[in-house]
Write a structure and sequence with these properties.
Helix content is 0%, strand content 51%. The chain is mainly beta. Strand 6 and strand 7 form a beta hairpin. It is elongated, with a radius of gyration of 18 Å.
């Protein structure tokens, strides 16, 4: 018996031309927090093959996702972490595409560096 495996291809693109992605950091007595703002239509994921769908994040307006700020220690760079952060989505195309789904959860960690002064560590703290 011979079985062919179904292939699924995935393509991801960000749309930084509409507006920039923004990182917002805030200090409080409880610690630093962050948010990642995705511009309207700022992330598009396309699948093809057995399941063909197009998923657009922040389809109607910009989305601001709650995040955790980690200042980093030693050689570890500061980072912004998303843990199952809710993001509005729109699913389209394809017969089997579950178009009734309107929200997704994103988990990711982004290393954050100051590109204008790479040797400087980014800190979030009380006003001096």
């Amino acid at each position: 018996m011979h079985h062919r495996s179904a292939r699924l291809r995935v393509a991801v693109e960000t749309n930084k031309d509409r507006a920039p992605w923004l990182l917002q950091l805030q200090y409080s007595a409880a610690g630093a927090t962050g948010r990642l703002s995705i511009p309207e239509g700022g992330f598009v994921l396309r699948t093809s093959g057995l399941l063909s769908c197009t998923a657009t994040a922040a389809p109607g307006s910009a989305a601001s996702l709650p995040a955790h700020w980690d200042a980093g220690t030693g050689a570890a760079a500061p980072s912004l972490g998303l843990t199952t952060a809710p993001v509005p989505i729109k699913l389209e195309d394809g017969f089997f595409c579950p178009t009734s789904i309107t929200s997704a959860a994103i988990s990711a960690t982004y290393a954050v560096r100051d590109t204008t002064a790479p040797s400087q560590r980014i800190t979030v703290g009380p006003a001096a």
